[in-house]
Design a protein that fits this description.
mainly alpha
């Protein structure tokens, strides 16, 4: 019986999921550099749309940019490029920071909620 208990304990360590770790600025920037530019912009766009979603909204992206109405989830290339450059710059001072936290800072500096 003690052997069965030790096997079950060992199995629970293997089966239990590890807590999800947030992606760091460094990891995100490294992956973005390896990707094609369009793929990098796609990753940034997905992150921004997730942060802008109703479920856990942390940023407030506008529905129009310069008078041009865009569909939900569409982000102008100029904003994507600005974010990409800001993340590259943040890599030097905030390499270990959560990339979502840095994205929130970058976007809220331009489009504050409220």
């Amino acid at each position: 019986m003690p052997r069965l208990a030790s096997v079950l304990v060992a199995m629970s360590v293997i089966v239990l999921p590890w807590p999800a770790q947030a992606e760091t600025v460094y990891e995100f920037v490294v992956h973005c550099r390896r990707d094609m530019l369009g793929d990098c912009f796609g990753r940034i766009s997905k992150r921004l749309n997730d942060l802008n979603s109703r479920a856990r909204r942390r940023i407030c992206l506008p529905h129009s940019y310069g008078g041009i109405m865009l569909e939900d989830g569409v982000i102008p290339v100029s904003l994507l490029e600005h974010v990409r450059i800001q993340l590259s710059a943040a890599e030097f001072g905030e390499a270990g920071a959560n990339v979502d936290d840095v994205l929130v800072e970058v976007i809220n500096a331009i489009y504050p909620c409220g």
